[in-house]
Amino acid sequence: PMPDLPSRQGILTSVLRKSPVSNDVDLAYLARHTDRFSGADLTEICQRAAKLAVRENIEKEIEKERLREAAIEAGEDIEPDEEEDLVPEITTRHFEEAMRDARR
Q1: Residue 19, CB half-sphere, CA atoms under 13 Å: how many?
Q2: Can you tell me the distance from the alpha carbon of 104 to that of 96, in angstroms, rounded to the nearest whole number?
Q3: 90 three-state secondary structure
Q4: How far is residue 70's CA from residue 30's CA, in Å, rounded to a whole number?
Q5: Are 18 and 50 in contact (CB under 8 A)?
């Protein structure tokens, strides 16, 4: 049998317990909209969302470095970067994109 609503919420919470999930992500909403999804399906959605967040962060870092190098080549003074938190947060948008690719 497929997990019921409380089970889906529990699965999502468990799978994401060590992940940096943005405060705007509503796991209860996600659980309500994943009826007929197995635990494996839910895990896959969470993994895809996390990978999307990491990929986005890498792309931002590459672009930031490209702009920095272009500024140096143009002879501009470069201010030292403030250290940003490099841990990408998984946002609602990442879950939405992961859900579009879901099997159900």
Answers
A1: 23
A2: 14
A3: strand
A4: 42
A5: no
Q: Copy the structure tokens of residue 21.
A: 């999930």
What's the token pair of residue 36?
Answer: 């007929």
**What would the two tokens of residue 80 be?**
């030292």
Integer Cα distance of 39 and 36 in angstroms: 10
pLDDT in tens, 19-64: 999 999 999 999 999 999 999 999 999 999 999 999 999 999 899 8
What DSSP letter does each residue of 2-29 carry, written as one string?
---HHHHHHHHHHHTTTS-B-TT--HHH
Report pLDDT digits (tens) over 13-31: 999 999 999 999 999 999 9
Q: Give every CB contact of residue 24 below 8 A, 6+ residues apart in sequence.
A: 91, 92
